[in-house]
Amino acid sequence: MGCIQIPRGIKICLIVTAILIAALAVVVLVLSLTILKPKQPKISTKSVTLEYIKWVPFPFHLNVTLGIVVSVDNPNYGSFKYDNSTAYITYRGVAAADAPIEHDTIPARGSHEISTTVVVIVDSLTSSPYFWADFTSGCMNFTSSTTLHGKATVFKFLKKKVTTYSTCDLSVYIQAQNVISVCHSKVKY
Ligand SMILES: *[C@@H]1O[C@H](CO)[C@@H](O)[C@H](O)[C@H]1NC(C)=O
Ligand SMILES: *[C@@H]1O[C@H](CO)[C@@H](O)[C@H](O)[C@H]1NC(C)=O
Ligand SMILES: *[C@@H]1O[C@H](CO)[C@@H](O)[C@H](O)[C@H]1NC(C)=O
């Protein structure tokens, strides 16, 4: 603009333009390596509640229904899309129950909560060598784990595959009918 006629002007104009383009390229590069760089979304377990508990002594039946709420925070200037997943409950390292988590997309710098209900039918755990001691102590410990696999995308070209998970140590108090949870979140780069 304004540098059409004078040859010297054209030269200056080209130099200035080149400098501007170079500066812009540096800015874009720096941004894509810093704030625009896809970051790891974080999931954390907000609450674990005992929704329902039923115990029948004979024949032995114990239904422990847990409500789990996890929140997913997407720190990116782009969306985070995660795949179908599963929340698992284990008892002393053995799978005890699971519940599906449906795929979804979290918008840029958004967060949302996922609620799932996991029904642990304890009957099948009675074969565990630890079971009766734990049960008669009135407190049974479980572990819950929720893992999300997905993709964080900033613009169309900055993409990153991510895996993020949250685990909780749960103590279910059968007589008192409550659950105490201690949760940890981890990210995997
Ligand atoms: C366990 O309890 C939940 C919640 O009331 C119920 O939906 C589920 O059908 C029960 N399962 C069994 C096997 O009793
Ligand atoms: C995810 O789960 C939903 C419902 O459970 C199903 O309709 C969909 O096809 C699944 N998507 C993938 C990619 O497996
Ligand atoms: C269950 O977990 C609680 C808290 O972590 C712990 O104090 C307790 O000893 C555990 N009980 C068993 C039977 O492992």
TrEMBL record:
<keyword id="KW-1133">Transmembrane helix</keyword>
<keyword id="KW-0812">Transmembrane</keyword>
<dbReference type="InterPro" id="IPR004864">
    <property type="entry name" value="LEA_2"/>
</dbReference>
<feature type="transmembrane region" description="Helical">
    <location>
        <begin position="12"/>
        <end position="36"/>
    </location>
</feature>
<protein>
    <submittedName>
        <fullName>Late</fullName>
    </submittedName>
</protein>
<keyword id="KW-0472">Membrane</keyword>
<dbReference type="GO" id="GO:0016020">
    <property type="term" value="C:membrane"/>
</dbReference>
<feature type="domain" description="Late embryogenesis abundant protein LEA-2 subgroup">
    <location>
        <begin position="70"/>
        <end position="163"/>
    </location>
</feature>
<dbReference type="Pfam" id="PF03168">
    <property type="entry name" value="LEA_2"/>
</dbReference>
<dbReference type="InterPro" id="IPR044839">
    <property type="entry name" value="NDR1-like"/>
</dbReference>
